Structures are given as C-alpha cells and as structure tokens.
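Quick one: structure tokens for this chain, please?
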Amino acid sequence: MQDRQDMKNKQQMSLVVLDMAGTTVADGGLVEQAFDAAATRLGEDPATMIDYVRATMGESKISVFRHLFGGDEQRAQRANLAFEEAYGELVADGRIAPVPGAAEAIAQLKDQGRTVVLTTGFARVTQDAILDALGWADGLVDLTLCPADAGGRGRPYPDMVLAALLRTGAVDDVRQLVVAGDTSYDMLSGVRSGAGIVAGVLTGAHDEAALKEHGATRVLSSVAELPALIREYEGEYEEGEG
C-alpha cells in the first residue's frame, strides 16, 4: 500500500524546466539575424552556414560554431563572441517580448506549487540581458541556467535539465520532471533526462512533426497551455492508479 502511494507521489510533476527563446520569449528570429551579423563581421558567408544554424536551434551556440569551423577553437570563440554581442544589441533595441501568456503560465505553475527553471543555449551574459529586458530577473522563476552552469555541453544533452533537478532539489525522481521547448534539441534533452512530460510548443523554430520525431510526448500551441496539460496528466495518472 505504501509503495503504491509512493508511486502516486512520484507523479506529482514538481519541477518544470522551460526553454527561453521561442518558448517563453518571442525574439522574432533574432538568432538568425545575430548569426548573420556575426558572420559578416568576421568576413564569413552566412548563407553557407544558415541551414545548420536552423537545424541546431536550441543547442549551445559555442557548440554550433565549433562544428561550423571544424573544431577551430579560436575562430569558434571569436564567432561566438560576435554572435553574443550582436544578439545583445538587438535585445537592447527592444526587439524581444514575452510569448503571449508565458509569464502568466509561469505564475500559474508556481501557484500550483511547482518549481520553475528557465534554460537557454545562450551564454550567461545574453541570458541575463534578456531577463533584464523583460523584467524577469527578479522573482519570476526559481532558477535560470545556461550551458556553462551545467558543465558547458548544453542541449541536446540532458545536463541543464539534470542540473535543475540537482540545484533545486525539487523532485526525487526524474519522472516528476516536465521539460518544454520549441526545438528538436529541447525534446532530445527532455527525453534523455527521463522527464515524465516532454512538451513541444509551436511558437518557435520547429514544427510539430520535428518535435514529435525527437520525442515530444505532447505538442502545444504555446507554453500558455502547459499548466492545464500538467494538471490533466496528473489526473489521468491518479485515475489509472485508482
């Protein structure tokens, strides 16, 4: 009887890990614009690289540049710095906004007693610039993570999701994790972490087919639908156990 109750408790989805750009933050394609600006500043042709950039949306940006420059660390670091500078300039120009309903959804998740963490493939300086620009720096979520906070690998590895679990101590079972994002790499990181819910959203880079192909258990129109989905999931589990 106690084992059964323990299993029920393990299905309370107490930790929610959300992507930023494309999921909770609407940046209007600024990643591609910043990449184009960075490549141009370095004398590179962005047209030869853009397909890979699009395919790897959600990945740590330094990892993308390492691949594009064949492992040349010096060039990759220069490109990453130029990208972060270009993106920061666009953010400073007021070119980002919350995804409609995102802040409200986060507040609702916290009201439901859940711990909420925001993650990104950007460097910390860019993540902080976004949070400051949106007024999200203080109190909106319990923790924010970038790849450097989790060993540097970023997505599609599960490192940031698992770092969220370790740093918050909000759950004692990976099945209590919820991961939501707009890219294939977000889905892979969620699947690889063992999350009970891996939700794709259609407000960003990739379509429903790509999200499902890479492991989405559900695909939502936007993150605004996530609190209701989690409640539904928990209710279905309890009914199944009843």
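Residues 73-92 form the longest helix (20 residues).
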